[in-house]
Specification:
- The protein has two helices and no strands.
- It is elongated, with a radius of gyration of 18 Å.
- The two termini are 23 Å apart.
Amino acid sequence: MKRNNFPKSVLLLLVAGLLMTSLPPIVDRHFPLPDLLRGFLGGLGLTLEVIALVKMQRLRKNAKCTEIKPV
């Protein structure tokens, strides 16, 4: 299995998106949030996740194979 090492900026975008998507329902249990704020945070989190996935795909596509082929 090939292991891809992604830059920290891409991983930071992905983690921030996951947190922004998953935290509003948890926080809303204890503190009531307005629908506007909940929707904004959820949408922003999904947007960050999609941006990170697009960057990962581009990096994966641009990566050159450095495998040595037998002659």
